[in-house]
Please model this.
Amino acid sequence: MYRKTSKMGGHGPPYEIPDYTKFRIDDIPQLKELEKALQAKGLRDPWIRNEAWRYHPGFGSKWARANKALFRGLPLGLALALVTVGATKMFGKEDEHGHGAH
Model:
């Protein structure tokens, strides 16, 4: 269930905000353990549910998100670098000031 908002700045598609009731700590063992540890110390975190989205299956694990962020453009960038080097070797002008021009 999503709630639609208006377009930000009038550009692009509208941003969809997920319904807050979708993210609950009851389904997440790590957050339940944290809540129990806080209760044992006499503490309570009223904002713990704000961390529930991080554990939602649609967002992947911490390492999967890091891997996606760091290596998202690697295949395309590597392919473009190889095409650039190949095109430079085939069509590029020879360097007149290279090592053999002395």
Summary: DSSP finds three helices and two strands in the chain. The longest helix spans residues 74-91. The longest strand covers residues 2-4.
